[in-house]
Amino acid sequence: MNPASPHDVPEVPQHPGWTPIAEEAERAARVLHPEENQLPRPTKRRILTVANQKGGVGKTTSTVNLAAGLAIHGLKTLVIDLDPQGNASTALNVEHRSGTPSVYEVLLGETTLAEAAAVSEQSPNLLCVPATIDLAGAEIELVSMASRESRLKEALSDDALDELGVDYVFVDCPPSLGLLTVNAMVAAREVLIPIQCEYYALEGLGQLLSNIELVQAHLNPELSVSTIVLTMYDGRTKLADQVTNEVRNHFGEVVLKTVIPRSVKVSEAPGYGQTVLAYDPGSRGAMSYLDAAREIAERGARGGTTEKGAGA
Ligand SMILES: Nc1ncnc2c1ncn2[C@@H]1O[C@H](COP(=O)(O)OP(=O)(O)OP(=O)(O)O)[C@@H](O)[C@H]1O
Ligand SMILES: [Mg+2]
Fold first, then answer.
1. Packing angle of the helix pair 179-187, 205-218 (nearest 10 deg)
2. CA–centroid distance, residue 34 to ligand 2 (Å)
3. What is the pLDDT of residues 125-163, one digit of tens each?
């Protein structure tokens, strides 16, 4: 892809007087020398479900890049790919051919979490339970199973997560509100909603929030929308600012201060089985995901003090 595509957002200088190359080198150094920028551990292990039934809003991109940002900077992080498309597994370059121990076998109780978790080459701190195409049938197969909504929760027991020693778990959901997403919402305490800075972005959000409320009321009273991340921001359009303002007015502190810009580097990275942090550590996309990961880690170290109810 051409890096000068019209969809790429121009770099905003952070250090007046520096050349663009110096800026890029400084950003790359921050990503590549994580020992100087270790992130604080959460007061308690955090499980975040990354959900939005709208397709293509940046769920997977946010999951893998936030997870990589936390992992590279010292926090052991597990990504659960709960989407039969297997995009998170692809982006983390984790084997996910049919027959590979995956989240499907974990949901069926045939495999333990530790058996299905593969270490990503992005960081020894980054684990991924992949999704194979077998997961496509799970939505239907689960219907007739006992405790069909809490299969993932059972798999993500304290003991299983202690065995892996993880601080953070991100569950990447498919673009639907079916049983897989319900399993993710029952297993987590927090929902992270990526919102694309585009016209239809807020459409369907009401439905997502009412589903979260239903899960809260009947299956998981601890669930709340703790984090909203604005993605694919294009500063050249008024619309992007309108969406940003509207989301901030409505959700307040829950929205991360860092906004993820639309950037060709971000979209190219999965094609190389890499996160943008590995693919182009000096890019604005890498830096913004790292900044967003830092915000998440700092909230976690304060005990997630900005958490708000889903209906807020
Ligand atoms: N910041 C960004 N800049 C440019 N492209 C992006 C950005 N974030 C995501 N994309 C691209 O947009 C597309 C959709 O992103 P992604 O797959 O993360 O969305 P999703 O919500 O997981 O989609 P689905 O609903 O299909 O699971 C992908 O091609 C991705 O590379
Ligand atoms: Mg996805």
1. 60
2. 27
3. 999 999 999 999 998 999 999 899 999 999 999 999 999
The span from the CA of 268 to the CA of 5, in Å, is: 12
User: Domain of 131: which CATH number?
Assistant: 3.40.50.300
For strands 168-172 and 77-81, give the pairing.
parallel
266 lines ligand 1 (CB under 6 A): yes
Among 8, 11, 50, 60, which residue has the most ligand 1 atoms within 8 Å of its CB, making it the best to mutate? 60
Full-model pTM: 0.91
The reply to whether 12 falls in a domain is no
CA of 174 to the centre of ligand 2 (A): 6
Closest C-alpha to 153, from 301, 59, 49, 308: 49
Tell me the pairing of strands 46-50 and 77-81. unpaired
Q: How many domains are there within the chain?
A: 1
The answer to the question of residue 95 being in a domain is yes
The one-letter amino acid at 229: V
Domain that holds residue 260: 20-34+41-301
Q: What is the pLDDT of residues 249-286, one digit of tens each?
A: 999 999 999 999 999 999 999 999 999 999 999 999 99
User: Is 55 near ligand 1, meaning CB less than 6 Å away?
Assistant: yes
Neighbours of 20 (CB within 10 A): 10
**Which atom number of ligand 1 is nearest to the Cα of residue 233?**
1
Q: Kindly state whether residue 222 falls inside one of the protein's structural domains.
A: yes
Residue 2 maps to a domain: no
Nearest listed ligand to the Cα of residue 270: 1
The residues facing 77 across adjacent strands are 126, 168
Ligand 2 ion local residues (Cβ < 5 A): 59-60, 87
